[in-house]
């Protein structure tokens, strides 16, 4: 990092070792007649791309198939059983401090991030009664890992002595340019088994995190899990605590960003699914949505996995045969369920705002939304009740919805017994199956930002960026990278990006990993 970058990082509260990625030099804005770009997809990635392009004078049209922006972070109005309005969403999201680029996007409309509030802890609870917490764990690696192991009831001395040290050592020096080459062929489950991680710690600490990718650890690439371990734990000094929005997603995020885009002359088209993108004989592309096709100079495909496959399949002249085949092989993670319950009585006030769970039949976490979100808190204060949200990730594809919804509520009663006597005033259940699956061996098929056509770029949390980012931060980062790739064509300076370091932080631990580390299944002496 340059001295200037170090001063900037400290002034803005970033980890001193955060990595700055500068775009190519160029003009500040487009001169003369602006080029046009169609951004297809109005989630985090699409909005990030649209913001970066529109700020620099590009004429942007943003297409979103749903009636509102937000993608998997969207919210929408619902009417409760008593006729009162409320907001439903696709579920809880944690805004980690490592999400530098997502937070940079939010700063466009909230410079001091006053719309976010910190939750004091990130507790994890196993059905056996074991419980972990990150509240008192130091943020700086490697002390974070050492303190977590020392404080956790899931680590015992004999467990630590029986671990496979050489196989575990590569976690201490995850290198983003090579981790998928080393570990993409192994599942997260098998990798942890090879390390001989204590079963309780594996179930509580790692399974909670791996399932946040909406996949069973047996299906998830070990490379993604190792990268996650690096981003959130051993590679970053930001720690594992996080912020949440004080208001529902539309009010906190998307309404302000929509207004911001409009002020920058972006045309925002919601309820506008795109049916195809076709190269125009005179140059550029024809985007087919409802109504006459519109011509654009460039295109950003910021779609979820199913949407990207569908648009590419309907656009036979887009890209080349090899690229199209890779897109066609992309897979979607199993379905997940989000249940939001408006209860007629409060939960115990000592309950955390968010609790990760493990060892239950399907329950992956509980959010007491009325502890931290303004709309839910006002409802609870007015009625004397509470609002809770339950997540179940990676359900069977043909699960019976009513059965799973009822089972999720029964598990809530098991974890928070006081809710067993509560009456559900209203309930909303959201079923989805549109998250990317980072399957074992699937990294090579995932698209990069750039495509065979320099005027078409891809963004989203399914994209390979070559950077240590994941989940919402990967979506925001890839959106900015997509905009930068197009801005380079016009010699315009793009968006500066930040990430956690792209390798292990400690020189000693890196040396140990290089000297003694061994990939799962490799013979002794072979790294």
Any key phrases for this structure?
seven-stranded mixed sheet, alpha+beta, 17 helices, 527 residues, disordered N terminus
* Spatial sequence of strands, sheet with the most strands: 9-8-17-18-19-16-20
Radius of gyration: 23 Å
**How many DSSP helices?**
17
Percent of residues in beta strands? Answer: 15-25%
Intertermini distance: 30 Å
User: What level of helicity do the residues show?
Assistant: 25-40%
Structural class based on helices, strands and sheet pairing: alpha+beta
Unreliable stretches (pLDDT < 50, length at least 5) are: 1-12, 523-527
- Mean pLDDT over all positions: 90
Number of strands: 22
Biggest sheet: strands, sense, closure?
A: 7 strands, mixed
Task: Kindly describe this structure.
- With 527 residues, the protein is an alpha+beta fold.
- The strands form six sheets. Strands 9-8-17-18-19-16-20 form a seven-stranded mixed beta sheet. It has a five-stranded parallel beta sheet with strand order 11-3-2-15-21, covered by helices on one side. A three-stranded antiparallel beta sheet has the order 6-10-7.
- It has helices spanning 3-11, 44-55, 100-106, 143-151, 157-162, 165-168, 179-183, 188-195, 199-210, 222-234, 249-263, 305-313, 321-328, 374-383, 401-415, 471-489, 507-516, and strands at 19-21, 36-40, 59-63, 75-79, 85-89, 95-96, 116-118, 124-126, 131-132, 242-245, 267-269, 276-279, 285-288, 294-296, 298-301, 336-343, 354-358, 365-368, 386-392, 424-432, 456-458, 497-499.
- Helix content is 32%, strand content 18%.
